[in-house]
Design goal:
Two copies of one chain form a homodimer. Chain A is of the alpha/beta class. Chain A is 41% helix and 16% strand. The two termini of chain A are 38 Å apart.
């Protein structure tokens, strides 16, 4: 497993919260695109601009679904894996981090002494310098505090409550409404063509499962994410699984191919990730190792006006895309609409 | 995770190999029942005798699939989990142990020095006393020697080769032919009624995935088993996953509910296990914690004439079945035919 089991970039997005004017522009843009989306179209990818990216997707799907073609892939082997943060929904801020903060605030009402923990105090203040200095242990402390020591069913309830009301700090819409419309169309399009669609994300597996069916049409058994060790217990004669503060799998970077193999026993023929931390390079590389024809998408956040523009300091993901001939999705050029509604 | 991560009972079945006359009787019985199976029937569970057990299954499935009934369960939540060894196929001897021995023999041809390892020498001699004395470490040594240090794809090829030719030491048929006909009918019947069928076994996840589709109609992504840590590497510019000698999950006893939760995020409404080690008690208890109506089956190996008769020294599984009102399947009384052909 990777050493950096909870990545500091989990936290960096908070800094974007300061970028007020850009976000106001996005909110206006959202309203306009929502109105446009009322117009129905027979195009399965109607929120994608015509161009090379859209053509790559359409041609790939046509190729692997044409019976008798040498490129035909049997439906059972048409696996598609999607990163979540920054690929399927907005990662500014990272949704699961908003949940951590929300939980901490609730917990402090009951246990005010938690404020005495430096990591908790730093999180509540948004003091990123503290976490950069203290590293993984400090991050793990607030994550486990809010995610462990309860049963899976109890956690599911907390997450469900959160998703019912939690809003994007700047857009003002529910966090579940900050999914990308073009990617939702892509998920549906692939499923209509016999693909089995999976999430494969560094996010917590139970956290994502709480909303994956509702917002992406992906059932819980097709969600792969970071997972803690679950402990089986009998409480009052009833079986429960307790979430422990012990990491089982960190499903990011090299952990993604391992997670896909563990959960599916297959190599996907389609995979989509995004630029930010290099977290999807291994998954896209793994996808490309399929003996079948395969397609890799890398979403580039290059639209400061309608969404966000962010890059990697070392440009690793885009360099890998060039080297391996992956299809780069430019949000600015390829998407007519950003958010689903 | 459980302390006894490779159970000594993995090995005990070898002792059954001495029981020649019983096995000869089974072989004759197999032939006769094969002839009987040619007669087609509209009964979806035609290899099950009429009686309480069969009725429990039929009534349960009718109940949860009747729309409008208070017991109706939506198809998405109709999850059924089956243990493998002793529940879906014969565990005398444990098939994966036959594979270990087969691999050791092949490996010794290339690396005769392996004979100098006491654990290898003991395994080849069938010296169970050695493993009882040396414990888990010795067992782990031969398991890892034969299962790790290669890519997943390489292992899959070895397992596929093994299954093509490996025969049951006494029946003389392929090991893949020692699956239970009544359980295969049950798997099909559940799937026809909208259930998603899973294997949930202590066996190695990749090992079972090699044959699960062919012999049970269960695709690899619906196989849950014990898993080692996989290491992502790039070899000659191609992504591979290497099987390391490090245990990630031991999917037996309390590990089974945790494995089901990890892989599916759901609680099954149907689960089937068997008597031998108490390995399925936690899974059946977990199944019964479902808020929906649920059914638990426990296969009792009580047919010394047609298969094997074995019990637990402490009778734990049967006691649990009585306490929790699980349905006990008597091979002797409930099955008209044992093996599929």
């Amino acid at each position: 497993m990777s050493q950096d089991f909870i990545d500091p970039v989990f936290w960096q997005p908070l800094m974007y919260l300061k970028v007020g004017p850009i976000l106001a522009a996005v909110a206006v843009s959202c309203t306009l695109t929502f109105m446009a989306s009322v117009v129905q179209s027979a195009d399965p990818l109607s929120s994608w601009n015509e161009g090379q990216t859209k053509q790559s997707i359409l041609q790939f799907v046509a190729k692997v679904t044409t019976e008798g073609s040498p490129d035909f892939v049997p439906p059972a082997e048409r696996l598609a894996t999607f990163d979540n943060d920054g690929t399927l929904w907005c990662e500014q801020p990272v949704v699961q981090f908003v949940f951590v903060l929300d939980r901490l605030k609730h917990m402090i009402d009951q246990q005010p002494e938690l404020r005495d923990k430096p990591a908790v105090a730093a999180a509540l203040k948004g003091d990123m310098a503290y976490f950069e200095q203290e590293g993984e242990q400090a991050i793990a402390e607030v994550v486990y505090l809010t995610h462990a020591g309860m049963t899976v069913a109890e956690f599911d309830e907390l997450a469900a409550e959160f998703f019912k009301t939690a809003k994007h700090p700047k857009y003002g819409v529910l966090l579940t409404e900050t999914t990308y419309q073009p990617m939702r169309e892509l998920l549906s399009y692939l499923r209509e063509n016999g693909f089995k669609t999976y999430i494969c994300s560094g996010g917590g597996i139970e956290f994502m499962r709480g909303v994956s069916q509702e917002i992406y049409g992906i059932p819980p058994e097709q969600v792969i994410g970071s997972a803690g060790v679950l402990e089986f217990r009998e409480q009052n004669g009833k079986a429960v699984l307790v979430k422990t503060p012990k990491l089982l799998t960190f499903n990011d970077k090299q952990g993604k191919p391992a997670g896909i193999a563990l959960h599916t026993g297959r190599v996907p023929i389609f995979a989509a990730g995004n630029v930010r931390t290099g977290g999807d390079i291994a998954m896209l590389t793994y996808c490309q190792s399929s003996p079948h024809p395969s397609l890799q998408l890398l979403v580039n956040h290059d639209d400061a006006e309608r969404e966000f523009a962010y890059a990697e300091s070392d440009n690793r993901s885009l360099n890998a895309a060039r080297e391996h001939n992956w299809t780069v999705v430019s949000i600015k050029d390829d998407w007519t609409q950003i958010f689903a509604k």
